[in-house]
Amino acid sequence: MTESPGVDGPLAQPPADAPAAMVELRGVHKSYGSVEVLKGVDLTVARGEVVAIIGPSGGGKSTLLRCVNLLEPVTSGQVLLENEDLTGPGVDLNKVRRRIGMVFQQFNLFPHLSVLDNLALAPRKLLRIPKDQARERATALLARVGLADKADAHPRQLSGGQQQRVAIARALMMDPHVMLFDEVTSALDPELVSEVLDVMRDLARSGMTMLCVTHEMGFARELGDRLVLIDGGVIAEQGRPADVLDRPQNDRTRQFLRKVLR
């Protein structure tokens, strides 16, 4: 993909043989009363692409992520998933959201349920999957995130990193086409961050489309196909992670990176 050198540069245009778009934001604005948080964001994410989203607090990163599955309805503009306009009339958002997995800073696990039942609940209730089938898939996903031995445990018996891995496995239970991660390591002790990032690495290498709001620059450099800096409700700069991190073109990007990389 041809990257934009900055907010004042040309828009990035995909080559003719680029993968099909998974997610598109077209002129997305989001306001809360008189406060405009997103100011006309255009972003296309290809199938299988990993986009790392960085930027200062309050710049609009999390709001942008929540607009992708309309947890925050947009004020104007369009959000498309696999060419389906989610902002169009008559869209069954509950059905569409089954194709979008989202993991938050907080784990939001049900404390009274076992780990296995936390995973199996949504597919049983929403997809009407038989109990045995749901538990079989949950068991497989727990093994994938390295928690096969925790199936019968309750969330209070797990570390923060383990709870976040359960939350990722729970999102994968719905067989999503795209995964959204909103600062999923920010609430963890430093020694627990790596175990969550390892799971995200596995997902990225498997070809999952991912949008990751993150402050983990090492992760963004290693596995991001593209790095997007959001500041003041606009995309200030985007490009290959190494280019943005090592050779930023925008003054605002340089200011931000001086603070987070020192």
The main sheet orders its strands as: 6-7-8-3-9-10
The separation of the N and C termini measures 29 Å
Succession of helices and strands: EEEHEEHEHHHEHEHEEHH
Q: Portion of residues in helices? A: 25-40%
- Shape, per Cα inertia axes: globular
Which radius of gyration do the C-alpha atoms yield?
19 Å
Total of helices? 9
Q: Outline the low-pLDDT stretches.
A: 1-14
Which keywords apply here?
globular, four-stranded antiparallel sheet, alpha/beta, six-stranded mixed sheet, 24% strand, 9 helices, 262 residues, disordered N terminus, 10 strands
Tell me what you see in this structure.
Helix content is 35%, strand content 24%. Strands 6-7-8-3-9-10 form a six-stranded mixed sheet, sandwiched between helices. With 262 residues, the chain is α/β, with parallel strands linked by helices.
Short description:
The chain is built from 9 helices and 10 strands. It has helices spanning 61-68, 93-97, 115-126, 131-144, 160-172, 190-205, 217-223, 241-246, 251-261; strands at residues 21-32, 35-46, 50-54, 76-81, 84-85, 100-103, 178-182, 209-213, 226-231, 234-239.
List the helices and strands and how they pair.
Blueprint: E1 21-32, E2 35-46, E3 50-54, H1 61-68, E4 76-81, E5 84-85, H2 93-97, E6 100-103, H3 115-126, H4 131-144, H5 160-172, E7 178-182, H6 190-205, E8 209-213, H7 217-223, E9 226-231, E10 234-239, H8 241-246, H9 251-261
Parallel strand pairs: 3-8, 3-9, 6-7, 7-8
Antiparallel strand pairs: 1-2, 1-4, 4-5, 9-10
